[in-house]
Amino acid sequence: MPSNITRPDQQHYVAPVEETPLVAIDTVKAEGKPSNLWTDAWNDVRKRPMFWISSALIVLVVVIALFPGLFTQVPPNNDCQLANSNGGPTDGHPLGFTKQGCDIYSRIIHGTSTSLSVGIIVTVLVFVLGIVFGAFAGFYGGWLDSVLSRLGDIFFSIPYILAAVVIMSVFSQYANVWVISLAIGIFAWPATARVLRAEILRVKNSDFVMASTALGVSQFRILVRHVLPNSIAPVIVITTISLASAIVAEATLSFLGVGLPSSTMSWGNDISAAQTDLRTAPQVLILPSIALSITVLSFIMLGEVIRDALDPKARAQR
Amino acid sequence: MAGYIVRRLLQAIPVLLGTTFLIYFMVFAMPGDPIVALFGDKTPPPQVIEQLRERYHLDQPFIVQYFIFLGNIFRGDLGTSFSGQPVSEILAATFPVTLRLALLAIFFEMVAGISVGLISGLRKGGIFDASALVVSLILISLPIFVIAFVAQYIFGIQLGWFRTTVGSGAPTQDLILPALVLATISFAQITRLTRASVIDTDTQDFVRTAASKGLPRTRIVPVHILRNSLIPVVTYLAVDFGVLMVGATVTEGIFNVPGVGRTLYQAIIRGEGPTVVSFVTVMVLIYLVVNLLVDLLYAVLDPRIRYAK
């Protein structure tokens, strides 16, 4: 009998794993960083200039909204002189004046917080409603799914700007940032719920969910701890983009005259007020429009970058 | 196919009841006097209030009011505007103009969106693809009223190519500029859908087979790739219709197009709440019908939908 048999019951020589080429396959690089969807996405995102450009713009917009005093000393409302009506740039007033003779630059700076607040409130509302409806419909299925999905269909069937127009017509006396955000958000959530529901239907049949069930973890805990975190990626994408849509919706409602009261500083109100003088003073309309569009563009660009990073299919198509 | 149509029609009923109920609820179930609330800070003449109270049967329980409202809609009675004209008559007069505008816009966005999407998809990662992405992102970021004003200023006032407002009878050449503006909203979406779909189709086996049979690229692209890439674009039409209705309200208002959108726009601007409610209800009903038709069309195009349980 050969002396190098490793175990008594073995008839032939079996090399220890360390001596075979297989060792290369079996070796796990201990010093390698663990990889998951989020670190992969971060590694992808930080290489893209679009991510840094849009993030920088968003940071700028947030800083302007929080501390308008850092950017202008001119009061946006008082200090308006009709003598300056639709006037061009002068010393200390780099962008000229509105029809009422107010400083355009100062009004743009002070209007930022309105747009951003509406965007954020609507987004939080859509995120919460979308997750509650989408998660319960997708995870529990059955009659709950039917009821929640039909309810979503009903809200989805009314274009949300039209719904907001009706709500704001009824509540015109109470119009403020909160009311307008509710009016937009209450009809904007079904898209998020649908996306989440589809994703949860896919995830809930995974092995790790079955393993948790086998271990006796409660259904609700499985949903919150295992299914939701694994199906949230598409919701993040749609949420970033819905922030941009909410800002546009507020401006559109204010433009239609059913948005915020004219005393509230808002880009939509300023654009609306400038439309009668488009022929003679287009800059009064165009300047706040540029501020509005750059803000919206930065959120859409960020959403775009995140989509590319989180959705493998979008990444392959790049 | 018949089974699918029946199933789809039955599904539409709860949505139809739900949406009309929701609109009615938003307006009439709120605390306070809904008629006064609908006028905002304006005080309407007492006979108008009296007439509206009678029309909406505000002395009845809420659910009875709703069914009376629903019954009125299905009999084609949508109430009267403030000038005393029945809303249904106004609709009949304005709808053809809006339909022409919408069809023109759909034509523009489809031609531009599909061609740009096709070229981007076939040459993905190229300069054309990158510039198309930038242009479409900018177009998505611009609110429709900004695009409308800028177009009106540049092409109407500065260059003088188009009239800034639409003339009486809405001749088609006057509708071109508003339709182009309207088309920009969905252009980006259609481009993106077509591009993704083209990239997907380009890697399919039947495209490789066609190429290995020796077919020229000039035949593979239109016959094998493009035709099979269009299904998502067709389904998008249903969503697009809702986008177009909101867009038309703003665009028709700005360009003074005598359509449904402008009527709604003026009712909103003047704070004529009851007219706004009637028009929004009608628009939502039209939207539901269009969605139903597109779903049926989709089933005709793609047998998998028909037979799916």
TrEMBL record, chain A:
InterPro entries membership: BP-dependent_transpt_permease (IPR050366), MetI-like (IPR000515), MetI-like_sf (IPR035906), OppC_N (IPR025966)
Annotated Gene Ontology cellular component terms: plasma membrane
Q: Where are the transmembrane segments?
A: 51-71, 116-139, 151-171, 177-196, 234-260, 281-302
Pfam families reported in the protein's UniProt record: BPD_transp_1, OppC_N
An individual GO BP term = transmembrane transport
Q: Which UniProt keywords apply?
A: Cell membrane, Membrane, Transmembrane, Transmembrane helix, Transport
Chief location bin? membrane
The entry's localization annotation reads:
Cell membrane
Q: How does it sit in the membrane?
A: Multi-pass membrane protein
Question: Which parts of the sequence belong to the ABC transmembrane type-1 domain?
Answer: 112-303
- The stretch of residues making up the signal peptide is none
* Similarity comment text for this entry: Belongs to the binding-protein-dependent transport system permease family.
Q: Which PANTHER family match?
A: ABC TRANSPORTER PERMEASE PROTEIN, OLIGOPEPTIDE TRANSPORT SYSTEM PERMEASE PROTEIN APPC
Q: What is this protein called?
A: Oligopeptide transport system permease protein
UniProtKB/TrEMBL annotation, chain B:
> Which positions make up the signal peptide?
none
GO CC annotation: plasma membrane
Q: Which residues form the ABC transmembrane type-1 domain?
A: 95-298
List keywords of the entry alphabetically: Cell membrane, Membrane, Transmembrane, Transmembrane helix, Transport
Location (main, coarse): membrane
Transmembrane parts of this sequence: 12-30, 101-120, 132-155, 175-194, 233-255, 275-301
Membrane topology summary: Multi-pass membrane protein
Which compartment or compartments is the protein found in?
Cell membrane
Q: Name one Pfam family in it.
A: BPD_transp_1
Biological-process GO terms, alphabetical: transmembrane transport
Q: Which residues form a coiled coil?
A: none
Q: What's this protein's family per the entry?
A: Belongs to the binding-protein-dependent transport system permease family.
Identification of the protein by name: Oligopeptide transport system permease protein
